[in-house]
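It is worth pausing here to work through a concrete case rather than discussing structure prediction in the abstract. The textbook approach is simple: state the sequence, then state the predicted structure, then interpret. We follow exactly that order.
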Amino acid sequence: MEPIQMVKCRLSSNVARDVGDVRYVPLEIFRLWRFLMERVHNLNVSDPAVSSWSPEGAEDYVEPGDGADAVIEVRFDYQESGGVVRPVTRYFPEKDFQLIFGYFSKHFQEERMLDGVKQRRGSYQSAKALPYTENG
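Step two, the predicted structure:
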């Protein structure tokens, strides 16, 4: 499997919350995600950096630790109210997984998550990260 270009950033608000502040977002959807976080949820997105995420077992996988962050990929198919099924894929820091996934999953009705939630461990190569710029 090819590595996924990923943005690591910090998420914060003026209101204290008990939520991990690091997020991992695929580069291809980062601008839209950032817009939603800032404009819809009134959160601050800061320190974006681009690198790659690779699943455990892939040729370019790096063991989490020095130079790589442990990140869990979550996938499921979600049936919308009109019957349309859409795939959902998100990435969470392993150390805050239970907490952040708990908040995230509240956006979905469990009975509409088809075939259960699949998890895959991987790593984000933080040692190779470059600052994110709007132009690529």
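Step three, interpretation. The chain is about 15% helix and 45% strand. Residues 4-131 form one domain.
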